Amino acid sequence: MHSNDRFDHRCLCHFRFLFSFIIQFLLVPLNSQAAVPDCSAGTAVTVVAHLDDDLLFVEPAISERLRAGWCVTVVHLIGGANGAKFDYVLKREEGTRLAYARLAGVSNDWDEATIHIAGEPVFELRLKQQPRVRLLELRLPGGAVRGGRVPLALLWDQGATLTTYPMGHGEGAPGHYARDSLSATLRSILEGATRIFTLNPDTVPFIEHPDHIYAARLTRHVAQSLAHAVPISYFVTYPIGNWPVNLPAEEAQRKRDVAATYFAVDGGDVAQLFGEYEWNGDWIQRQYGHSDSTARVRPDFVGTSTVLFNAASSRCLASAGSGREPALLPCNGSIEQQWRWEPRTAYPGNEHNAALVSAATGQCVAERDGTLVETPCAEWEPSQRWTPWDFGLVFTPSRRCLGEENGELNIRGCASLTARYRWSTMQPTSATDLRLAGAMYGDVTGRHVSSAVYVQRRGDGPGFDVYVQALQGESAPVRWYANAVPFDSRATTPTCSTNTLCFDGARFLLGDFDGDGRTDLMVITPREGGSAFWLLRSTGHDFQAPTLWFQNQIPPSRTQQYIAFEYGAKAQQKILLAVQTPDKHAELWMVGEDDTDHVRQIKILDDPRFRFDLRLLTVRSRERDTASLLAFQPASNGERIAVIPIGLSNGRWSAGDVALLPPLFKPDTTKFATDDQVGDTDALVVMTVPRFTEPGGIDAWQWDPFKSGSSPVPLASLPDQPWPDTNPALLHNGTHTTLAFYRRADAVLDNTHFSGGNAALVQYDIDGHDIRDKPHAVSQLPATYSETLWLERLSR
């Protein structure tokens, strides 16, 4: 062969190889382009400290955006926790992979790579089946929750350089971040954001974890340097654990699934997620934060005023003026009850790092010889250096704990503390949330004697157990129904399906719905866009498995309240629904059997005077063909309670004239109990309010609204019954009537719980207008009080 022929052949071979390479090179971007997510709906970037902060405190904001078609990027600054080894970093990341796969509803299959952003290594994870989900792990070292070295604070405040954990699965080189390089990396990540989520920058250690605070501060600082304005939201972390529940039931159920999936890997204990008493479960039904814009340039710390609310006494810390000791007083929203925690110069992570400053006087609270006094603030004065503590504890400058005893401020050692030494930065709290119910009461045995019925969360999943406690004698409660709902941490579908009864989404109601003389349990859950009414019939010794009694198209998320009542010739009780309308009113619907034994639903009353946040109570019917109810709701000025009687007579429903209760009875402090059976007392309604005339206890009043011109009259003062965490009921048993309280029994708490203790039933006999000053029965129940509470009404 000629040399030129050989040359041409070699050229042709090289050309073919080059052509093939170019084609393959071009195809790679084309294939990659097909996998690039469509972020046209928006991009939400979440920056948090730890690999569970987003799941516990930011959610459901992330999943809401994902369902709306957004891209979501989650940045975890910290790897592991508290100086943990690298294998714990990998374990936490495996947990967050599983959690986000479940959140997205796809398999746990990720593309992973170590990428460089602004020159620094970042471990990137992207869901293969849902590429709109991206996780960025910076793997910085973390600080301690309650005092100790805080590397992120050292970087941000003191110019330290931090070395990350290795990248990849340990084979990649670590990164080295200083303030400027971390800022540059975050700025590059945030550039494409149309919404930013982070934690609360405007607080002090250790009300929230120092890592939480500094992650939020540096995120805000960097976000404000972007060339364009972006909406940014800041979410509160630990303090929300004893704030009122504010997430809809279905959102809470999804959030609980995702968080439990994570903790099945990190710690392996899902029981802490399916309760409200266990500390990680405290955050699930709550999401609190506020929104701003990066266009509003703010300093790294913005001091804010707050209350210090003592739930055990239902009182607030109040300034008494310069040179005087603060006091516990009834909460009134005044500036004297507003306080600021102001940071004091300290090495990051040190305790005694904040001053307690009165918003009214601008002075600091000092501790001197075991007492407190307001004095001019001094930066280095040790008597003014407090330690705000997460989970509700407040440490004084002498490192003792601030609390309440007999309605007065008290300082004592921090061992063996009860809820009297827990503080909240919000009022109301879960302890004073009037929407919550605990025990229900009814004749479940058919022996003409009421029993208490309560529902207890299960720790193995989102199910519940139902217990019955006899109100007479000393018998122990008996489990009448066990509702186990298995939890699979590897599943990608919701645990709570269409026909599953889960605690978070359930509303409970007692009534004789089949007319056999025994009180049954009705469980109402979301289903198919409406509500499913599941009947658990009483056999006299247990509740049978649930059967679908009725399905409507009014979801529980619109139903303010369900209430059982009886009228007419048929023995079966019916259910009244107060349904919220878009114009902030309520209309009444009735569900029950008609004359043909079919369950029907009809609208019975649409009165423009009914507010969306009304509360309905039944009162006893003196005639068989009548029904009487009362609607209690805030008056137009919000300071008093308006009462509207509702009657059914001869098949016609009507609402009467509005009456106002005396000013003593406030919408946010008055609890009601009614006797809907004919008994030996004419106390149709009993109202309990905090005993403000003397510290502590409850004042009980009775009222007959059907007596023309009648007003509430004092029934009793009960100094030993706390108003918070106490639900009253008026019960008729045989020949006597009792005022019963389902309440939390005081208990010693460890330092990761806000409240707790066993439940208790306390009963006082009522004789006409008199009540015994001592209870005739006290039953300590083997139930965790906070895990037996359920949402009776949507709005306060």
Automatic annotation (TrEMBL):
Q: Which domain of life is it from?
A: Bacteria
Q: Which UniProt keywords apply?
A: Signal
Keyword Iron-sulfur carried by entry: no
> Mind telling me which CDD domains this protein's record contains?
beta-trefoil_Ricin_AH (cd23415)
Transmembrane annotation, as ranges: none
Matches recorded under Gene3D superfamilies = 2.80.10.50, LmbE-like
Which InterPro entries would you find in this protein's record? FG-GAP, GlcNAc_PI_deacetylase-related, Integrin_alpha_N, LmbE-like_dom_sf, Ricin_B-like_lectins
Entry keyword Ribonucleoprotein: no
Q: What is this protein called?
A: GlcNAc-PI de-N-acetylase
Organism encoding this protein: Paraburkholderia franconis
